[in-house]
Design goal:
With 410 residues, the chain is α/β, with parallel strands linked by helices. It has 13 helices and 14 strands.
């Protein structure tokens, strides 16, 4: 073999290696509870993520590479979430991770991504502190496309106090980080209306008897119950009121839309209202296509998505990450982060069209002008107000001046 042929062989080998490297998939972690009481949210989120990934891969992927999802069930347990974060970073070498349903799991786990300089896209967890956990550090790798509690709490209070005119309200919140941080946000929002809850009660995950808490609320004269919890325990609240023969409105965080609340509460859950970024109605062509594809792909019971918000936000989270990777031209964490903070082109999602959703100082894509109020009616969530349904058919983009969000202080 002469020098020329050796050189050609070397070049050919290098080209082959380059092509093989370029074909390596882009690994994205998917972390959430796929079993247990929070699984209604976790599975729906994962389904939305899978749908978006399939669409992107069929269209050629990103940077000429396919997206490979690495799924892990965190069981809504903080310690499991920590273990998964370390595994996805150190063993799987993910470029980013999407997910986190439970605020406590997010706060416990995402510090490992921060240390590794790998972006996390929270697509369901709503604790106000989540994207502010590392505000004191030079770069923040934690992003979110869900309506945080400092948006939801003022909406809940506005609905109860201003829109519906209740003078006395009780707060029932679970003992998790989600419940207690949400309860704090509710109390702050009430204070802005010069209102103090007549009863503030706490309960644990898996509690099945809310009689003591409900009796205190009833005896205090509560005209409505404001909630921060997840589906199974929320159903116990509704069922407890039915047993007591005490029916007052339930107005709470977005989780009142979970299937395991609606189904387990039955008639007792009818009329419950909650903020929603997405309701399973085809108000836009994008939403119609999403709903049709979801029902065809996963064939859920009663043609109802268990957690429509989780599915829609999960779907959008992948498109946001894909746009950032494409713009960055890289799967390097700091470059993806920089691209997310300055996305040049709008990203059409199911929840909204994301037009410059993030900046270096603002990692929350959803502002107070985007969520609407849903209501449980006929065992599904519908728009509580006709004007909101009309609003949902319009393109709603991030509004930095949107009213309603509380100031988050470290």
């Amino acid at each position: 073999m002469n020098f020329t042929s050796k050189a050609i062989s070397t070049i050919a080998l290098a080209a082959a290696m380059t092509a093989a490297f370029a074909a390596d998939p882009i690994k994205i972690g998917v972390a959430g509870p796929f079993t247990g009481g929070s699984s209604s949210m976790g599975v729906s989120m994962r389904d939305g993520v899978k749908m978006a990934t399939d669409e992107i891969n069929k269209a050629g992927g990103v940077l000429g590479r396919q997206i490979q999802l690495i799924e892990r069930d965190d069981e809504a347990k903080n310690e499991r979430g920590v273990q998964i974060a370390q595994e996805l970073i150190n063993k799987e070498k993910v470029a980013a991770t999407v997910g986190y349903i439970n605020t406590g799991v997010a706060l416990a786990s995402q510090r490992f991504y921060q240390e590794a300089k790998i972006p996390v896209m929270n697509n369901v967890a709503t604790g106000s502190a989540i994207t502010h956990q590392f505000d004191d550090q030079p770069g923040n790798y934690i992003f979110r496309n869900a309506a945080h509690d400092s948006i939801q709490a003022p909406m809940i209070v506005e609905e109860a106090i201003t829109r519906r005119g209740f003078k006395k309200v009780a707060i029932l919140a679970d003992s998790t980080n989600y419940g207690q941080l949400g309860r704090e946000d509710l109390e702050k929002a009430l204070a802005l209306k010069s209102v103090k809850a007549v009863a503030v009660e706490k309960f644990n995950i898996k509690d099945v008897d809310m009689t003591a808490q409900l009796l205190k609320a009833k005896e205090a004269g509560a005209e409505a119950v404001l909630t921060y919890a997840i589906g199974p325990e929320l159903a116990q609240i509704a069922n407890g009121m039915t047993k007591l023969g005490w029916k007052v409105p339930m107005i709470g965080s977005w989780t009142l839309s979970m299937a395991n609340f609606i189904d387990n509460a039955g008639p007792g859950g009818e009329g419950a209202r909650m903020p929603q970024t997405f309701i399973q109605e085809p108000t836009t062509p994008k939403r119609q296509a999403f709903i049709i594809n979801y029902l065809k792909t996963f064939n859920p019971k009663n043609a109802r998505i268990d957690s429509p918000v989780s599915a829609a936000q999960g779907y959008d989270s992948i498109y946001l990450l894909a746009a950032a990777i494409k713009q960055a031209g890289s799967t390097d964490g700091p470059k993806i982060k920089a691209a997310l903070e300055d996305l040049k082109a709008p990203v059409e999602g199911v929840v909204t069209t994301y037009n410059k959703p993030f900046t270096a100082k603002d990692h929350d894509a959803i502002t107070a002008n985007i969520p609407v109020f849903g209501e449980v009616k006929g065992a599904k969530v519908v728009y509580a107000y006709p004007d909101d349904q009309k609003k949902a058919s319009e393109v709603r983009v991030k509004d930095a001046n949107a009213k309603g969000a509380l100031v988050i202080k470290k």
